[in-house]
Design brief:
13% helix, mainly beta, 36% strand, 4-stranded mixed sheet, 5-stranded mixed sheet
Length: 180
């Protein structure tokens, strides 16, 4: 069913100003290709990852790369908007600083709603509203890469709760909308 609302959508990325957390051993710990709705049940029930915080580093509420990770608060907010989304449990350890944090990895639906693929050197995505299902958080493929897309109401709810570490870039939508 085509999405019929008028809400805006955004590409979700990490805030660039924050000292980024580095996750060290993700490829040795899990096969990230299996983080999809068909294969996630074959993943371990929890994943331990080494991380480096850096001098002024923090554990943000949202980590977008190398996989989407959410703090407990952010995960609970996402669960309010999509009760069917499965989550995997991750623990990040910085052994040098002797700090750790738990995260939840949402197993996102992948929507095929690109109106057209960006050309060489272009970064802007244009989504086709008529191909969207209206889910609040999903992944789109842009060739060999992917992007996480978040609906405006969910993004606002995260920001109202003081979520840190997220950056939002509005995406253009084409296609018709039933609500005007």
């Amino acid at each position: 069913m085509a999405y019929q609302g008028n809400l805006k959508y955004f590409i979700l990325t990490n805030e660039e100003k924050n000292p980024l957390l580095q996750i060290m051993n993700i490829n040795q710990s899990i096969d990230v290709r299996k983080l999809n709705r068909k294969e996630y049940q074959n993943m371990p029930s929890y994943v331990l990852l080494n991380a480096k915080l850096g001098i002024d580093g923090i554990f943000p509420d949202i980590i977008e790369k190398p996989v989407l990770l959410l703090s407990r608060t952010a995960m609970e907010v996402v669960g309010l908007y999509d009760s069917n989304i499965p989550f995997l449990f991750f623990v990040l350890f910085d052994t040098d600083k002797k700090e750790c944090a738990s995260y939840f990895c949402p197993v996102l639906e992948e929507e095929d709603c690109l109106a057209r693929k960006p050309g060489p050197g272009q970064r802007e995505l244009i989504l086709d509203r008529s191909k969207m299902t209206g889910i609040p958080l999903f992944r789109i493929r842009t060739g060999t890469e992917s992007a996480v897309v978040i609906r405006m109401d969910l993004a606002e709810s995260l920001l109202e709760r003081g979520a840190i570490g997220l950056n939002l870039k509005e995406v253009s939508l084409t296609g018709s909308s039933m609500l005007r």
